[in-house]
Amino acid sequence: MGLREAKKQKVRRSIIENAVALFRERGFESAKVRDIAESAEISEATFFNYFPTKDAVLSAWAHGLVAGAFGRVDAGRGIRPVLRRVCDDLADRVEADRAFARRAWRRARLAAGGATPDVTRVVEAAQEAGLLRRDLSARQLGDILYAAICGTIVSWLEREAPAGSLAAELRRGVDLVLDGARRRNERVRPGAAAVGAP
């Protein structure tokens, strides 16, 4: 990464960190763009060069939580153990401030196609080790995995009194994706489910 790109990433992180701090302190509606810009020591125009809205900052923050959890794991240690660590890390961070996380994730827009290079890296390592099917690209499987994780977090946060821990729900969601992405074996033949169907 060049010096210019590194500076842009530093400004972007500063905007996100300062905005989230103000959202926590004052509430989303009360924290104005000018307050965020002042706190990050930039102009309002610079803020809008990076984010079109305050909601976009929350989306970047939420996306960063998921990306960061994947970035902190060693992809070469087997797909399920790696993803269990990702689930536990995310659950710890979301549960640490459930009230703020609930408000933030409601406003965040986490579009499909959210797999980051770290998510893709974990999937690629599993494909190369023969643990995941290769008829889908690592990016496509990463997008599916990312969507399952984000959807599980949102679903868990929306319930007033979730029956189980977020970590357990994330693990179940990830296992469901992995079971569907597993390499086909001799016991499961393509089209076998259609036998006897009308």
Gyration radius from CA atoms, angstroms? 19 Å
Q: Give the CATH architecture of the largest domain.
A: Orthogonal Bundle
- Name the helix and strand elements from N-terminus to C-terminus, one letter apiece: HHHHHHHHH
Poorly predicted regions: 191-198
Instruction: Return the structural class.
Output: mainly alpha
CATH homology-level superfamily of the largest domain: Tetracycline Repressor, domain 2
Question: Which range best describes the helical content: under 10%, 10-25%, 25-40%, 40-55%, 55-70% or over 70%?
Answer: 55-70%
Number of H/I helices: 9
Distance between the termini: 57 Å
Concise summary:
This protein is an all-alpha fold and 198 residues long. It has helices spanning 3-26, 33-40, 44-50, 54-71, 79-96, 98-107, 117-128, 138-158, 166-181.
Note down, in words, how this protein is organized.
The protein has 198 residues and is an all-alpha fold. The chain has two domains: 1-51, Arc Repressor Mutant, subunit A, CATH 1.10.10; 53-181, Tetracycline Repressor, domain 2 (Orthogonal Bundle). Helix content is 68%, strand content 0%. The protein contains nine helices and no strands. It has helices at residues 3-26, 33-40, 44-50, 54-71, 79-96, 98-107, 117-128, 138-158, 166-181. Helix 4 (54-71) runs parallel beside helix 7 (117-128) and helix 6 crosses helix 8 (138-158). It is globular.
Throw out a few tags for this protein.
single chain; 198 residues; mainly alpha; Tetracycline Repressor, domain 2; 2 domains; 9 helices; 68% helix
